[in-house]
Structures are given as structure tokens and as C-alpha cells.
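Researcher: We plan to redesign the surface later, but first we want a full-length starting point. C-alpha cells attached.
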């Protein structure tokens, strides 16, 4: 309805019987603006406004879970996985990594795997690894550390 309200003034111009024959470029541009450009702009604007700190005071954030919010940032970081069996393992989440999103169960692919020492520090890269997939259901907790200068 907002889109219709914004483009209503254009409808009589586009529907003018002679416009399509006399000025086909203006007809095509006007039609494209009404049917594609303005609705797409409104969708993007709505998403940006709903993510703003101002709007989230009154409206639900568009990301359904904290998991989705974190990974939508597309930041690089180190992840320390605390597995339910008591083990810990580290990974690097970067440009080649992936995390599932709602409604799919929480899974993460980290592009690089690291052994972790008894203090929880990243000790050494697992040689020859091609990453790993971890289900959050297999973890007790995940810790995230900023990866400054890496992506």
C-alpha cells in the first residue's frame, strides 16, 4: 500500500493511451520504476530501518536468532568450541566459512581448525585441514574472539 501511495501519481501518466506508442522509453522507465525500483527500494529501506538501534526499541529485530545476527555481520573471528564431551577445539571463521541460518539448525563451517591447549589458547594449526563442520547441538558453549586484520 505504501508503494501504491508513492507511485499513484504515475499511474494516469503510464496508462495514457498515447504514451506507449509516442514515448516507449518513458513508458518503460515509468513502468519499471513503479513495479520494480520503488518496491525494491522500500524493501531495502525497511530492512535498514528495522536493524537500526532507533527502530529496535519499538519493533522486533529482523534477525530471528542471536546466531543469525552474529553471522550476518560477516566478520572474521576465532571460535573456541566447548564440546559436550568436555573437549575443546578452535577454528577460524573467515571469508570461506559458513554458518546456517534460521530455520535450519545451528551449524557452522570454519575454514581452518586449531588445536587448543589446556588453558583454552589456540596452540597449533591442524596440518592439512580443510576446515570442519560443528553443530551447536554438540557444543556446550562457543566463544568468539575478534580476528583483527584477517578476513
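Model: Full-length starting sequence:
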Amino acid at each position: 500500500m505504501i508503494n501504491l501511495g508513492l507511485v499513484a501519481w504515475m499511474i494516469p501518466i503510464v496508462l495514457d493511451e498515447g504514451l506507449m506508442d509516442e514515448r516507449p522509453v518513458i513508458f518503460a522507465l515509468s513502468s519499471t520504476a513503479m513495479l520494480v525500483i520503488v518496491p525494491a527500494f522500500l524493501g531495502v529501506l525497511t530492512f535498514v530501518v528495522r536493524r537500526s538501534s532507533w527502530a529496535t526499541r519499538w519493533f522486533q529485530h529482523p534477525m530471528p536468532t542471536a546466531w543469525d545476527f552474529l553471522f550476518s555481520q560477516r566478520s572474521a573471528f576465532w571460535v573456541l568450541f566447548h564440546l559436550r564431551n568436555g573437549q575443546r577445539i578452535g577454528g577460524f571463521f573467515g571469508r570461506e566459512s559458513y554458518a546456517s541460518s534460521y530455520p535450519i539448525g545451528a551449524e557452522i563451517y570454519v575454514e581452518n581448525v586449531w588445536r587448543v591447549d589446556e588453558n583454552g589458547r589456540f596452540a597449533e594449526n591442524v596440518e592439512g585441514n580443510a576446515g570442519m563442520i560443528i553443530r551447536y547441538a554438540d557444543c556446550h558453549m562457543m566463544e568468539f574472539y575478534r580476528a583483527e586484520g584477517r578476513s
